[in-house]
């Protein structure tokens, strides 16, 4: 795993949020239009992307493991759409952000999505074998907001070592290992500089 990754402090949403992202990730909004409630960064040397989404809070008021767990599932289902049957969640954990108040609930899940193979589509060569998702949900109840931080890690045949990966045994392989490191860096450095952001989006 490359712990030599260089990071830079990156302003998000015009500086209302800030966190450390890997140096080798580029801001997608410089290449194409991105929705106002999203920031998207992509690995210049690979296929991994990091997406920050500011969304409306889902579920009832208050925080409980059960309610927050359902909210996480709802967001995951919205993320993958009709492909929910192709998704397997491997684990879900409570997450502590270093620079957010400890009473702000946050959770992270690791899942994989395996594309269903349609025999009528022989040109699937470039499609990934599977995509790993590291999805972190930050619940800002006072702001009626859920922040989603999604790291998408497509695994394309020939671009990764299949023998290195067995999530059932806890073997993540290099690409997922790197993404977990990116996520941990985000949890450590993510900061809200302007809370008014959540009344605008």
Uncertain runs are none
| Shape category | globular
Strand order of the largest sheet: 3-4-5-9-8-7-6
Mean pLDDT: 92
Distance between the termini: 37 Å
Q: How large, in whole angstroms, is the Cα Rg?
A: 17 Å
Beta percentage is 25-35%
Order of helices and strands: EEEEEHEEEEHEH
Number of helices: 3
- Which percent bin holds the helix content? 10-25%
Give the total of beta strands.
10
User: Mind summarizing the main beta sheet?
Assistant: 7 strands, antiparallel
Q: What structural class do you assign from the helix and strand content?
A: alpha+beta
Question: Could you explain the architecture of this structure?
Answer:
The chain is α+β, with helices and mostly antiparallel strands and 201 residues long. The protein has three helices and ten strands. It has helices spanning 65-80, 173-189, 197-200, and strands at 7-12, 17-22, 25-27, 38-43, 49-56, 87-94, 106-113, 130-140, 145-155, 191-192. It is globular and about 45 Å long. 29% of the residues are buried.
Which SSEs are present, and which pair or pack?
Layout: E1 7-12, E2 17-22, E3 25-27, E4 38-43, E5 49-56, H1 65-80, E6 87-94, E7 106-113, E8 130-140, E9 145-155, H2 173-189, E10 191-192, H3 197-200
Antiparallel strand pairs: 1-2, 2-10, 3-4, 4-5, 5-9, 6-7, 7-8, 8-9
Features:
201 residues, alpha+beta, three-stranded antiparallel sheet, 3 helices, globular
Question: Care to give the gist of this entry?
Answer:
The protein has 201 residues and is α+β, with helices and mostly antiparallel strands. It has helices spanning 65-80, 173-189, 197-200, and strands at 7-12, 17-22, 25-27, 38-43, 49-56, 87-94, 106-113, 130-140, 145-155, 191-192.
């Amino acid at each position: 795993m490359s712990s030599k990754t260089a990071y830079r402090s990156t302003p998000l949403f015009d500086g209302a949020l800030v966190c450390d992202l890997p140096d080798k990730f580029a801001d997608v909004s410089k290449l194409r239009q991105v929705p106002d409630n999203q920031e998207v960064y992509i690995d210049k040397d690979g296929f991994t992307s990091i997406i920050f989404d500011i969304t409306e809070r889902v579920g009832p008021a208050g925080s409980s493991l059960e309610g927050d767990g359902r909210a996480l599932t709802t967001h995951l289902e919205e993320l993958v759409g009709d492909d929910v049957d192709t998704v397997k969640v491997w684990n879900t954990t409570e997450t502590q952000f270093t620079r957010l108040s400890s009473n702000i609930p946050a959770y992270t899940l690791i899942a994989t999505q395996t594309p269903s193979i349609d025999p009528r589509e022989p040109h699937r060569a470039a499609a990934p074998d599977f995509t790993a998702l590291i999805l972190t949900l930050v619940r800002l109840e006072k702001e009626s907001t859920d922040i989603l931080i999604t790291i998408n890690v497509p695994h394309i045949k020939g671009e990764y070592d299949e023998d290195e990966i067995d999530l059932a045994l806890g073997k993540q392989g290099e690409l997922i290992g790197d993404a977990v490191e990116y996520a941990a860096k985000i949890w450590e450095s993510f900061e809200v500089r302007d809370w008014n952001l959540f009344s605008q989006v």
